[in-house]
């Protein structure tokens, strides 16, 4: 995979990056620092254990070689393993309006444009102006209910409680360079370029990466109760390329001002470009993380998708139908200090089957002599 190097941010030599590579024997937690790849499996067998231990000193691992050489011969995997994969929805005003559009159009792309024009004119400015959970938001809610404009999506957009849902099972995410899946029976869908925060079991933000929270607009538009089918399918969640760990030169403040770019290149010659500016998010990232942990524990840690400003409306085929994916689309999500997440679209039916679950991972670790025995346990590390 010689092009993996191009997925790294331009300043990758200055940062500390956490990820997973298959160096020939199976998933291996690694750190990238100072131009070298360090195998950390001798310190902790999984990324989850490494995070729990806070073992981010590359000197404790085994230097494998220069980044350029190692990434050219290794297989790049999703940078997480045992963490729960959670996502925050409707965290931008534009995405709130698009969810209401899906709902009112009943998942019919042909009706979306007419609904969009009416909603934007009536409530677009109001939604952008209020702070979720504030008295002003409560007053807007009352006015919209009175006007017959209220929606369950507006509740999570401006109400006190954020939407936090489970995006994918543990170990089901795919990495940069892999195929990403869309249900074969979906006719209106899109990528969702997002920043993803990695947190430890305490809920402390450790680092950030990029993610594609693939969404089926027709399924969710028909009913919010179809969210599971709209969001969680084979290969429908990509994360990567690596987690950039927070340090003195890169922190949550950089995430709050990040610009996330999207480019789609279709085999039919179609191209689409867009961006998501984190400065326009309705709730601060750490508030979303707090709500994720408010009454739940995640002993193996969490990754949390922060939502997206991007909602593609550019027509691809017939006028008024907007955008939807086609097999073969190359989706590139990028941000200056996080790198490039690149995936090619296929159907969830045709994507490589997900076969490496938790038991398979631990069988592999045992065969390699990398079981948890001999390593600090998560409870020890968190004591």
Q: Would you kindly provide a written description of the structure presented here, covering whatever features stand out?
A:
With 383 residues, this protein is an alpha+beta fold. The chain has 3 domains: 2-77 and 358-382, no CATH class; 84-91 and 162-347, Fumarylacetoacetate hydrolase, domain 2 (Alpha-Beta Complex), CATH 3.90.850.10; 94-158, no CATH class. It is 28% helix and 27% strand. The chain has helices at 47-53, 67-73, 93-105, 109-129, 135-146, 152-158, 217-222, 227-231, 252-256, 285-293, 358-367, 378-382, and strands at 17-22, 27-33, 36-39, 62-66, 75-76, 84-89, 163-168, 179-182, 189-190, 193-199, 205-213, 215-216, 237-245, 259-265, 271-277, 302-305, 330-335, 339-347. Strands 1, 2, 3, 4, 5, 6, 7, 10, 11, 13 and 16 form an 11-stranded mixed β-sheet that branches. Helix 3 (93-105) runs antiparallel to helix 4 and helix 3 (93-105) runs antiparallel to helix 6 (152-158). The model is unreliable at 373-383 (pLDDT under 50).
Give me the secondary-structure topology:
Blueprint: E1 17-22, E2 27-33, E3 36-39, H1 47-53, E4 62-66, H2 67-73, E5 75-76, E6 84-89, H3 93-105, H4 109-129, H5 135-146, H6 152-158, E7 163-168, E8 179-182, E9 189-190, E10 193-199, E11 205-213, E12 215-216, H7 217-222, H8 227-231, E13 237-245, H9 252-256, E14 259-265, E15 271-277, H10 285-293, E16 302-305, E17 330-335, E18 339-347, H11 358-367, H12 378-382
Parallel strand pairs: 6-16, 8-18
Antiparallel strand pairs: 1-2, 1-5, 1-13, 2-3, 3-4, 6-7, 9-12, 10-11, 10-16, 11-13, 14-15, 14-17, 17-18
């Amino acid at each position: 995979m010689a092009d993996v190097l191009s997925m790294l941010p331009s300043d990758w030599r200055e940062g500390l990056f956490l990820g997973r590579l298959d160096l020939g024997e199976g998933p291996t937690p690694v750190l990238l620092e100072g131009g070298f790849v360090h195998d950390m499996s001798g310190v902790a067998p999984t990324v989850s254990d490494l995070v729990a231990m806070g073992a981010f000193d590359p000197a404790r691992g085994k230097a494998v070689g220069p980044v350029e050489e190692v990434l050219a011969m290794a297989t790049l995997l999703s940078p997480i393993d045992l963490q729960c994969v959670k996502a925050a929805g409707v965290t931008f005003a534009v995405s709130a309006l698009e969810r209401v559009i899906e709902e009112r159009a009943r998942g019919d792309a042909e009706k979306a444009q007419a609904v969009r024009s009416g909603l934007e004119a009536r409530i677009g400015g109001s939604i952008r102006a209020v702070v979720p959970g504030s008295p002003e938001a409560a007053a807007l809610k009352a006015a919209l209910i009175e006007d017959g404009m209220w929606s369950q999506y507006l509740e999570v957009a401006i109400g006190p409680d954020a939407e936090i849902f489970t995006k994918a099972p543990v170990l089901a995410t795919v990495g940069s360079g892999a195929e990403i899946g869309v249900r074969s029976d979906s006719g209106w869908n899109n990528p969702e370029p997002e920043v993803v925060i990695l947190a430890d079991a305490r809920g402390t933000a450790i680092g950030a990466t990029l993610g594609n929270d693939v969404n089926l607009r027709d399924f969710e538009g028909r009913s919010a109760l179809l969210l599971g089918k709209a969001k969680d399918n084979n290969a429908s969640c990509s994360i990567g390329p690596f987690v950039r760990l927070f340090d003195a030169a890169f922190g949550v403040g950089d995430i709050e001002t990040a610009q996330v770019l999207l480019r789609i290149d279709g085999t039919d010659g179609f191209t689409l470009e867009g961006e998501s500016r984190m400065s326009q998010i309705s709730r601060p990232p750490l508030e979303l993380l707090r709500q994720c942990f408010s009454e739940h524990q995640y002993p193996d840690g969490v990754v949390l998708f922060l939502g997206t400003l991007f909602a593609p409306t550019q027509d691809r085929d017939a006028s008024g139908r907007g955008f939807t994916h086609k097999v073969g689309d190359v989706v590139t999500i990028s941000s200056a200090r996080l790198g490039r997440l690149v995936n090619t679209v296929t159907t969830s039916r045709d994507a490589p089957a997900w076969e490496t679950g938790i038991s398979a991972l631990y069988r592999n670790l045992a065969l390699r002599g990398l079981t948890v025995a001999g390593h600090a346990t998560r409870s020890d590390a968190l004591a």
